[in-house]
Amino acid sequence: MNLPSIKKFPVIPFVAPSDYAHTLRWINALQQAMPHERILPLQSLSAEERAQCTVAIVANPDPDDLKSLPNLRWIHSVWAGVERLVDDLGASSLKIVRLVDPQLAETMAEAVLAWTLYLHRDMPAYAQQQMARRWHAQDYVRPQRKTVSLLGLGALGEAAARRLLGAGFQVSGWSRTQKNLSGVDCYSGSQGLQTMLNKTDILICLLPLTAETRELLNAMTLAYLPAHASLINFARGRIINDDDLRSALDAGRLQHAVLDVFATEPLPPDQWHWTHPKVTVLPHCSAPTDRETASQIVANNMRVYREHGRIPEHIDVQRGY
Ligand code: NAP
């Protein structure tokens, strides 16, 4: 490949909040992945340099910071979830590219399998039993007799489905458009959602947060689940109506919830989830971005843009993801 020398490309600003702790680590990883580019914190760019930028790499940027880049055409987020960016920038003409990293999908699939097994092998019940010094073996049910259902069959949902199939579970999935995945019972539409929930033992949420998915899990949809069902939310807190979730747990209509994401993060100390016996709280840790693999993905997208002027597949702001 015959790339021009480093000086020929305008600087790529890395835009993150001023108190973000990992700006330099990101810049180092990105710089290593694309030595022909110059990647600098936005704050260090002159007005002249800012005027030359058509692309920026971002991590939860302040929209006002992006306004200081008058010729910006697109931004590449280093995160997979971009609903805040869509809220902040959806009305502008700026194209938003999110991270789609196969490594991230595998990390999420691993978390899906780990916490599915936690529920499948009754670990919440054994933890309670231990506190009560109670010696009692729960009935064992083979994974082949359990249905694990995925809300969302995108980059993360599809990898999770494969991992669950490999562990022997019956796997179902629901998406906006109808999918056809080998070994997976695929559903779409509101009737499809109800049919899938009716036969679900463990429900896993991997949807993006959009106008359509906000509080999708509420009193009505949670009631479609069989009484022994459990829930894992690895997507976004606001996809669940929290009061309805609590009522379903308290009423014994839902057995357990593993929650990695919350409406407010970090989860405030006074929130009910922390101490609820049927809730496992995780600190948004199910699928952390790997800086090294993510930087390679961003670098590939930048190379295509530099060579062909092509902006990678970006968010459809009407759809919200
Ligand atoms: P994606 O590739 O865009 O897939 C989204 C899936 O959701 C697609 O299957 C899509 O359907 C489906 N969907 C969207 N809106 C829907 C609706 N209204 N009804 C039914 N299905 C709908 O996204 P992804 O990369 O898999 O990521 C999913 C989410 O995971 C992200 O948005 C982010 O919030 C979350 N996440 C969490 C963590 C964590 O650490 N907890 C880490 C990374 C990501 P179609 O296939 O028909 O488009």
Structure overview:
The protein is α/β, with parallel strands linked by helices. It folds into two domains: 12-101 and 289-308, NAD(P)-binding Rossmann-like Domain (Rossmann fold, 3-Layer(aba) Sandwich); 102-281, Rossmann fold, CATH 3.40.50. It has eleven helices and twelve strands. The protein has helices at 23-33, 47-52, 63-66, 83-89, 102-120, 123-131, 155-166, 189-198, 219-223, 242-250, 291-308, and strands at residues 12-15, 39-41, 55-58, 74-77, 95-97, 147-151, 170-175, 184-188, 202-205, 230-233, 256-259, 279-281. The strands form two sheets. Strands 8-7-6-9-10-11-12 form a seven-stranded parallel sheet. β10, α10 and β11 form a beta-alpha-beta unit. α1 packs across α11 and α5 (102-120) packs across α7 (155-166). It is elongated. The two termini are 34 Å apart. It binds NADP nicotinamide-adenine-dinucleotide phosphate. The site of NADP nicotinamide-adenine-dinucleotide phosphate has 28 residues, from α7 and β7.
Strand order of the largest sheet: 8-7-6-9-10-11-12
Shape call: elongated
Question: Helix/strand-derived class?
Answer: alpha/beta
Radius of gyration computed on alpha carbons: 22 Å
CATH class of the largest domain: Alpha Beta
Can you summarize the main beta sheet? 7 strands, parallel
Approximate strand percentage: 15-25%
Detail the poorly predicted runs: none
The count of DSSP E runs of length 2 or more, i.e. the number of strands, is: 12
Quote the distance from N terminus to C terminus: 34 Å
Series of H and E elements? EHEHEHEHEHHEHEEHEHEHEEH
